[in-house]
Amino acid sequence: MTKPIELYLTSDPSLLRMMRTVLSQICESIGFSCNETNKIVLAVDEACTNIIRHAYKNKYDQPIIITCNFFPDKLEIVIVDYGEPADAKKIKPRKLDEFRPGGLGVYLMTSVMDEVKFYNGTEEGNRLIMIKNLPKEEKIRESGNHY
Amino acid sequence: MNLEITTEEIDQKVFVNIKGEVDLYSSPEVRKKIFDLVKKKAPVILINLEKVKYMDSSGVATLIEGLQQCNKYNGRFALYGLQDNVREVFELTRLDKIFEIYSDRESALKN
User: Fold this and answer.
1) A13 to each of A19, B3, B22, B24, B28, how far by Cα in Å?
2) What is the pLDDT along chain A (147 residues), one digit of tens a residue?
3) Distance CA A58, CA A81 (A)
4) Which of A37, A82, A89, B65 is packed most tightly, with the most Cβ within 10 A?
């Protein structure tokens, strides 16, 4: 199985674009379609945006660690931050009949990923684990992945 | 590539041409441009997204604010030229039912 890949970035919004580019390449290289790759990238971008805005209160020099763990049938993405923990029980996708800006990030994350779990305020910081299953006909491609 | 925003006004219709990726970093620039227009109560604001390769919820929230502000003075606020991945964000959030969305500039102008 391909070894995990870790991306370290600071909570600087200007780095999100670079993160998306790298993550896109990782997702496509292991067999996700362009459409599925876009969804995974969106979910991770939304997670980082929430971390920057809510956990780090727009402080732009704090750590965010994104780890991609590869399994034969799925991609697991773990995102860790050390900001103010939100009550995981209160993190819920908002109702879409409320027409207002804001609050769509969690909804999008849970819509496009197969599993989304929050473990906030742990000794290892706030951990968000998101899983995307590979299409049945695909398996993680092991050859040629050297990051 | 950084975000590029240009505007053009034709017959009291303002086209806002956005090029690049709209996210937490770049959405304040879009917000500023749109709010400059709604402050002036521009009667028709047409947002050209043909060259927007990516948009997250920060960008969507900015457009929701623009639409809300425009509605306050009975202005028209419409989007056109959404690329597939951008359109999908609107569909996932069901905002495709709320916004006027057109395939291209001509369709946006006709309606």
Assistant:
1) 10, 13, 11, 6, 11
2) 689 999 999 999 999 999 999 999 999 999 999 999 999 999 999 999 999 999 999 999 999 999 999 999 999 999 999 999 887 677 776 666 666 666 789 999 999 999 999 998 888 899 999 999 998 776 666 544 444
3) 13
4) A37
3-class SS of residue A85: coil
Q: Which CATH superfamily is domain A5-133 in?
A: Histidine kinase-like ATPase, C-terminal domain (3.30.565.10)
Q: What residue segments make up the domains of chain A, in order of their start?
A: 5-133
- Chain B window 22-81: which residues touch A at a Cβ cutoff of 8 Å? 23-25, 54, 56-58, 60-62, 64-65, 68
Which among A13, A46, A100 is the nearest to B25, CB-wise? A13
Pick the CATH number of B4-110 from 3.30.1390.10, 3.40.50.2300, 3.40.50.300, 3.30.750.24: 3.30.750.24
